[in-house]
Structures are given as C-alpha cells and as structure tokens.
Design goal:
four-stranded parallel beta sheet, 263 residues, 12 strands, 9 helices
Length: 263
C-alpha cells in the first residue's frame, strides 16, 4: 500500500455502486478522481476530485488525462463504460482487465447471443424484425446495446411492437434491436462464476422473485433465494457448457454474472 500513496486513479461513474471502490482506494492512500455527468452523486461526494465528463466520452477523457496525468483507470459495475475504459487503458498503457473483443461481446446483446449459440448455450428465442407476421405475443423488444433496461418494452400486439421497435432503435447505441419471447411465468434465476487463471468456478446460483402486480413491482426482483431450486438441473444440463463458453471468451481473472430462465 505504501507504493500506492499519492497515486492518481480515475474511476468511471459516480453512483452508489462505485462507493466501495472509492472508499477502498482512499484507504490505500490513492488520490481518487470520479467522473460522471451528474453533479451530485454518492461517489463524487466521497472522491478527492471530480469531473463532469460522461463515462462514454472516451475522447474527452483522454484529452483531460493528457493535461492531468493519472496512474490508472478503473471501470466498475457500468457495462457501457467498458469501451471507454479499454480506450483509456490502451492510450496510456494501463493494465486492463479485458480486451476489445471481450468488451464487444459482453456489451452487444446480439453478439453475446451469437457467442452463446456458437458455444451450444441456449438463448431466449427471437423473432426477425423483417418478418413480424409469425410473432407470438407477448414479446420483449430491447436495444442491442444500451444501459440497463433503457428502451425495453413488452408488446402484446402488432401496433405496440411497431412503436417499441422505433423507441428501441433510438435508445440503441448501434441502432440495432432484439425482439424475443417474453419469458413470463418462467422461473428466473441468476448465476455467478469467478474466473481464476482462465478457469471458471461456480460461486452461486439462486432464484429471483418479482413483486406483486398491484404494487407495480411485477417486473422488479424484490427477493433472491439461494441456492436455487434448480441447482441440480443446471449442473446436469448447462454448467459445463457455460464453463466452456467462459473459457473460450479468454477471461483470465474476472467475475461473470449471468441470468436465465428455466423453460
């Protein structure tokens, strides 16, 4: 830790998710700089220095760092900031926990689903935007590349579908969308792996439960129970295929978080 004292670390994102990283860095004596377009955030209030540059504006961040040198850049819990993280690390020769191919696959839903299929991992069935006559409702429309659930819409008829496609394309950073079966009523679970020296180890698998319709929480996870009721099924039919897919992705040291449905 003595070697870290006084080092300057740029952290991408200033929300509550980044608080632990900011605090841990400060405990090591690191000078923490947080960038976020929001003026007043939890992580910004704790940081030593703040910027109002978007985590997606890699060119502006590179320009700032050339004038105000830093010793490292860290992205944590923000999928869409991975591209800026990679570009900054490449520009200044900093360590980076991923490469360009990995970041592309893990931030573009279309590329990720293609990667799953190439590795014999099941995906949610899709519909072709150019052939909507065979769509069976309800369906979920979402941008291929966006943050969180931004631009996602559930559709129960053709009119809603057409409107949702327009909205999703506006929210998608690459202009592409996905139309897939809405997995209503299917058991929902999440899985986490830790990759150590390129080998994935299952950390946990648990079941996700949504709230009540009358509370407007039917699309929100309000409870997580682990281990999952479907642990044995997952281990028997899916675990080995997912492990091989993670290994093929080439991650060396990394957590991997996945969500799925039992169908």
């Amino acid at each position: 830790m003595e070697n870290l004292k006084g080092k300057r670390l740029l952290i991408l994102g200033g929300a509550v998710q980044q608080l632990k990283v900011v605090q841990a860095s400060k405990n090591m004596g690191v000078h923490v700089i947080v960038t976020d377009i929001s003026d007043d955030t939890e992580a910004k209030r704790l940081a030593d220095e703040t910027l109002n540059i978007s985590v997606m504006d890699s060119e502006a961040l590179i320009k700032w760092c050339k004038v105000n040198p830093v010793d490292g850049v860290l992205n944590f819990c923000i999928d869409y900031a991975q591209h800026s993280h990679y570009k900054l690390c490449k520009e200044f020769g900093f360590p980076c926990y991923g490469n360009e191919l990995q970041y592309n696959i893990l931030t573009d839903k279309i590329l990720f689903k293609q990667f799953c299929l190439e590795n014999n991992v099941d995906i949610i069935p899709e519909y072709d935007e150019n052939n909507l006559s065979n769509v069976k409702y309800p369906v979920l429309v979402k941008p291929a590349e966006s943050s969180g659930s931004r631009g996602n819409q559930i559709c129960h008829c053709h009119k809603e579908l057409v409107e949702a496609i327009i909205c999703a394309k506006q929210e998608s950073r690459n202009g592409k969308i996905i139309i897939e079966r809405f997995m209503i009523g299917k058991p929902d679970f999440e899985i986490a792996y830790f990759v150590n020296e390129k080998k994935p180890y299952l950390a946990y698998i648990g079941d996700r439960y949504s709230g009540r319709i009358e509370d407007n929480l039917n699309r929100q996870c309000i409870c997580f129970v682990g281990p999952s009721k479907y642990l044995d099924t997952y281990l028997k039919y899916t675990h080995n295929r997912v492990c091989k897919m993670i290994e093929k992705l080439g991650l060396e040291f990394s957590p991997v978080f996945l969500q799925g449905f039992l169908d």
